[in-house]
């Protein structure tokens, strides 16, 4: 298995770099017309010096077709072999089983009619075709990173070509699902604005992924790689094929990769700014709505058992198993949580068995919500979620795509995470500020809903309000679920206020900020009409002003190098 | 950064002269509201300053024709069902639906006069609704697409509908009942200002 991943580069690697491709591709028996541009032959230098951001087309991990679709083929093969097991045993140990008439099957037919040669040939041809298909699809699946975009093209008969403009990048995530991890492969996803518009590089060499992401984000930031001294040495000449195929080295490498921390020490500060103790993680998961549900189910079950209805076990046990697996996946996902600031953005890592980590460049957070359920209040635990662009609709609503940036943490942890997400300098004040905003919003510069709102929102009206400061709109709301929404005006799409007939009777209104789709729906449930009108005016002016001052699409570019191009006009 | 473009001014011949319309600025209820607002500490109805542009009054007729078509469909279905089943319930359902349509139609003129938009220097304001009022502000730079739709009835009256698409589905702005030429001019103008104020989402 592992041999395959580290097999020498395909024979084409030997060719001189400038040689035109088509002539080198006379693979007999391929049904596909080899079009010249699909086979740009480039020399691939020894892998430790691979420069993937040189604007040339590069190929992915050779195990890619296998990991993407070949698993099914392997499974079928395994199934066939398993079914032939008895037959094989009989073949090598004659007399071990008794050949009876009921064992008559196609294989016996083939044997008796002397078609063995033909059958073997057929199997061989099928295998050859499948291998050829894998090989061609791997050959034709290439990507390149230029100064402008990340591009991927793939497909044998139906070519697809995807391209992510660098200044539209919303984040780069690297995930290593369990099986690809064994192969030393990783999946990189470059998300751009627009639902489901991300460019996926699956699968890359695991060791290339982190560097590639760093380079992509550095390019996207508007800094030239050479200026930063990050550009690797120019591609060396041919002859770089390594031959040290020592199995032990491969195994060691794979094991160390597998156990390596999610944060690459070279590209991130070594220390994650927040750690989640295992006890807190388990405690917070147990103190969730799920366990309340389990308790309720248990009560119902005990009552029904006492009443002699044993059949209730039939639904109780499966639902407990389901919830248990949910708990297990929640806990293992967050077990190796880490968050750290890097030059290219905030990097958040998750996962024990299948790991993933996302880097969010500065200014890609569209909304932050700090929330606390009533069950967590005695412990002072909070959760932080974000809205980010580039998720498909169902992922965004289902809370997938790593939108929970802090599964559980104290307010101090929350303040560190918020600092990173908003790009604020680290300070101790933010924690107190958050504390004040949550506990006593009236003293923290919040405009609160008036007393007449008590008929409308009897529990939370005292703590429902908004505040506009430093280009941020804050919504404070909720009692059972205490929530603080932090909305950067520079990212807000639009803003609305609305009023129904009952609200009008009480001279109240509600407000809603519109951001990209995500787990957070930033609303202000109730506010006085005069305040709502003022908020509407201030926010609509604030969005415009904040957007004009915003330069985060090329976040590190301080001086435009060649005059303000139209798209950099903002 | 300054924007040389002036706020959009429609061709005077195309513009809807607000004064020509029936008493739209202050409905009876709104006048009462305004009177009360002076005594109370807060207005009842949320509103913002500035002149709201209104949609064409012809759109009221378009909407009423739509209601009439719906009513005809209801009657036809009820007649068919009544003939087939020879029972009373289709007629009751028909009565209920017709009542609802008639009620809706009675409020149509006010509902459509409540639709308004403002083109400010940097953003578009939109509002609609009398019972359930909604006001939205969208900066021009946030608009991604602007669609023009024309239904068959609206086309007969020379009207069109502008639909604004942003990165957020919740923005949901549809501006109906614009004269076709005005709609196209408005679209071109908005695309232009959106382009010059484009920001990276």
Automatic annotation (TrEMBL), chain A:
One Pfam family this sequence matches: bPH_2
Species whose genome carries this gene: Mycetocola manganoxydans
Region of interest called Disordered, as start-end residue ranges on this chain: 1-35
Keywords per UniProt: Membrane, Transmembrane, Transmembrane helix
Domain YdbS-like PH, residue spans: 138-214, 461-538
Biased composition (Pro residues): 8-29
TM region(s), chain numbering: 66-84, 115-136, 281-304, 310-328
Name used for this protein in its record: YdbS-like PH domain-containing protein
Superkingdom of source: Bacteria
From TrEMBL, chain B:
Transmembrane segments: 60-85, 91-108
Keywords: Membrane, Transmembrane, Transmembrane helix
Keyword Oxidoreductase: no
Region (Disordered): 1-20
Location of the YdbS-like PH domain: 113-190
This protein's record includes keyword Transmembrane: yes
A Pfam match: bPH_2
PANTHER family in the record: TRANSMEMBRANE PROTEIN-RELATED, UPF0699 TRANSMEMBRANE PROTEIN YDBS
The name this protein goes by in its record: YdbS-like PH domain-containing protein
Organism: Mycetocola manganoxydans
